[in-house]
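Sequence only, no structure available. Ideas?
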Amino acid sequence: MPGAGHRWEFGGKQPIVFTITMGLLLANGASSLALAFFGKKLIPQDLPGSHVCEAMSTYGIRYSVPDWICWYANWDLAITGALFGLAAVIMIIYRKDVRRVR
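Reply:
I predicted one. Tokens follow.
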């Protein structure tokens, strides 16, 4: 089919560091989506040690969450970008084993 695009895959066995990176990227994506859609409803309010998180504030509603959840909400996009960059670097390092499939 014209315009369907191309895939990239490893010719032999996939490197373990690439598998780990893709697993972390999948886990990061799932946790960021869960935090965005369900976190505001599932995280109990006014937990001990919680404070208002500006990263989770939407439409004037302020949420009080623990510090580690607020840290993750602040750095989620940077973590995703770093994992994508790491996957690209791994594919460049193993470029002799990477092939394009039509």
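The two ends are 10 Å apart (CA to CA).
Hope that gets you unstuck.
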